[in-house]
Amino acid sequence: MYKITKRIIDILVASIALLLLSPILIPSCIILLFTGEREVFYKQKRVGYKNKFFDIWKFATMLKNSPNIGTGEITLRNDPRVTSFGKLLRITKVNELPQIINVFKGDMSIVGPRPLMDVSVNLYPEEIRKKIYNCKPGMTGIGSLIFRDEEKIISAAADPKAMYATIYPFKGALEMWYQKHASLYTDFMIIFLTAWSILFPKNQLVYKIFKDLPTRSF
């Protein structure tokens, strides 16, 4: 029943979001069409439900072939591969909004673990790697909330790639927490906290609402 209800809510929330966000989505498409690399959307293979691949949709914010240059799958703050308009889209998280298409298609849910490239999924401990996509990946999730400052953490590290690998066991623990506590209430609160964090980026409300989250040590 939870999965059926969640799918209905996904479609409902995605439809409302598409209508409400069209004043942002349409101008973004037009600007991208006439600036930077002249590409509007960027599609990339990601690991999804039951570890099957799918094409994720995002606004194009980086130079072509960026995963094969520089720091690869890791994006740093002030990354030279990011276009000028792309920086604004990434800061505001507007670059993620085309994933509404993935929600309609059924590849993703509104709430769930972030869909990653296989090279990043392999950084999870093996036991977590087997379980993390037993639920559909999401546009937002508990990992996204806790690591909304991920680029800052990685960029500040002496060795960004080593730090990127270091945070994955904890990310995995967060997603295992989500699967244990998955419910319509948990999903609703994560959606609310995501919106709240856009307005108040430095808030710590997530720890007050979900008091039994795994402890973050860095």
Could you characterize what this model shows?
A hairpin with a 5-residue loop joins strand 1 and strand 2. The chain starts with a helix and ends in a 9-residue tail after the last helix. It is globular. It has one domain. Helix 7 crosses helix 8. With 218 residues, the chain is mainly alpha-helical. The longest helix has 33 residues. The protein has a two-stranded antiparallel ribbon with strand order 1-2. A two-stranded parallel ribbon has the order 3-4. The mean pLDDT is 89. The chain is built from eleven helices and four strands, in the order αββααβααβαααααα.
Concise structural overview:
With 218 residues, the protein is mostly helical.
Assess the beta-strand content as a share of residues. Answer: 5-15%
What structural category characterises the helix and strand content?
mainly alpha
pLDDT averaged residue by residue: 89
Unreliable residue stretches: none
How many domains, as an integer? 1
Strand order of the largest sheet: 1-2
Output the number of helix runs.
11
Quickly list its features:
single chain, mainly alpha, 218 residues
How is the secondary structure organized here?
Elements: H1 2-34, E1 41-47, E2 53-59, H2 84-92, H3 100-105, E3 109-111, H4 118-121, H5 126-131, E4 138-140, H6 142-146, H7 150-156, H8 160-166, H9 168-181, H10 184-199, H11 205-209
Parallel strand pairs: 3-4
Antiparallel strand pairs: 1-2
Helix pairs in contact: 7-8
